[in-house]
Design a protein that fits this description.
The complex is a heterodimer of chains A (136) and B (175). Chain A is mainly alpha-helical and 136 residues long. Chain A has seven helices and no strands. In chain B, strand 1 and strand 2 form a beta hairpin. Chain B has two domains: 87 residues, no CATH class; 70 residues. The chains are: A mainly alpha (136), B alpha+beta (175).
Amino acid sequence: MPQIVEQIEEFAFGRKPATRLFVGALFATWILYCFNPTEYRFFPQCPLYTLTGWQCPGCGTLRAIHALSHGQLQAALRFNPLLIIVSPFIALGFARELWLEARGERTNWNAIPAAAIWAILIVLITYGILRNLIPA
Amino acid sequence: MYRIVGADQKEYGPVSAEQVREWIAQGRANAQTIVKFEEGAWKPLGTYPEFANLFPSASTFPPGVPPPIGQPYATPPLSSAPAYGAPRPYVPTYLVWSILATLCCCPPPLGIVAIIYSAQVNSKLDRGDIEGAQRASTLARNWCIATAVVALILNFWLTGHYFSWITANMPNLPH
């Protein structure tokens, strides 16, 4: 019995953030599978879109995940194309991180070239601007 | 006799085992310092069994640097740079959280500031500016938290139906 308590403690407060994030993501996907964000109002709204009418780079993420969980790839691509395009890479990175954590290791984020982080930033900003200029 | 590579990437020696022990004691050489014994291969000092007992643990030993001034032989200079091969300290970048904050917690400009500080952590580490990297790391973390808090407040304020929804949309729930 105390072993279970220890395991729960390790999960909640231990140094395995990716494992925690993965369980959270699974739960969120299940909620999104059950409830369509366009029909239910308890999902968070994008403040930028509500205030200005402009779509931010993350707009459509929930609807895209809902569509994807129901196997509607084309609908998902319409809601948030960038998310769907990079999602295989996110999944691979997640799997790698979980594998490392299971062995007591972790990704050395300091080894990522600074240029790569700047590139991510530029891609996000460009995407945010382009999706408002090009009508879907 | 031993030859060692100093923090300035220059070769020093040959010196006796006694001298190497003194440099270790002074923190001028550490487990990561590259050393060659006689005609052997260049290896980290920590791998030599004759010095292994001088290091508490390869990972906890502070980055030290070579030798003293006024020796009869050439000695490596004092320097604030880490010893050759010494690992860089781990400074969290909070990159994943910054991106999540940008995507999930609009308004985007706040999350973007967090990504900029994330990038600065690695830029500064590349330049050897460890203190600056730690400052950027703290700022990245704080901007992530600030973005999440602002997004939460905006969400409750703008679409404040979280509680009224429960009563108003009840028939909407199970189909």
